[in-house]
Amino acid sequence: MTKLELPVRIRGVVAHGDKRGRGLGFPTANLISGMPVGLDYGVYASETVILGDMSKTYASVTSFGIRPTFDGADRRIETHILDFNEDIYDREIEVSLLAFLRPERRFASVKDLVAAMRGDIMATRSRTRS
User: Fold this and answer.
1) Could you report the per-residue pLDDT of 21-55, keeping only the tens digit for each?
2) pLDDT bucket at 17, cuts 50 / 70 / 90
3) Is the CB of residue 75 less than 8 Å from the CB of residue 61?
């Protein structure tokens, strides 16, 4: 498999997902898009632009993979936009993956996953300009 060099831009429409992230305190925009070839499963520091509202770039944390902690099987691109709480279902967004934070893995508990997600957010804040 060919490795993609960062940054990588992914554009797609926001769709409804399992709403699991929202329940954990980290709502995500689930992206309907072609799946990138050569991109490692994992968590990325990213920036998101909601198209049609190009004046603002939001810091975000993006997960690409199958969600092994929840026995997921299908590949998904999900992004948590930091400091953002608007309904963007059916809107087109562009996510720029800036830095690989960690590989995807199965956590022993949801509590461990939430702790890792908090760390991902802190790492993203230190790497993005938003």
Assistant:
1) 666 778 899 998 877 788 899 999 999 999 986 66
2) confident
3) no
Q: Mapped to the 3 state alphabet, what secondary structure does the chain carry? A: CCCCCCCEEEEEEEECCCCHHHHHCCCCEEEECCCCCCCCCEEEEEEEEECCCCCCEEEEEEEEECCHHHCCCCCEEEEEECCCCCCCCCCEEEEEEEEEEEECCCCCCHHHHHHHHHHHHHHHHHHCCC
User: Which two tokens mark 108?
Assistant: 């022993």
Residues designated as active site: 78
Q: Tell me if 68 sits within 8 A of 104, measured CB to CB.
A: yes
Q: Which domains does the chain have, with CATH numbers?
A: 8-127 (2.40.30.30)
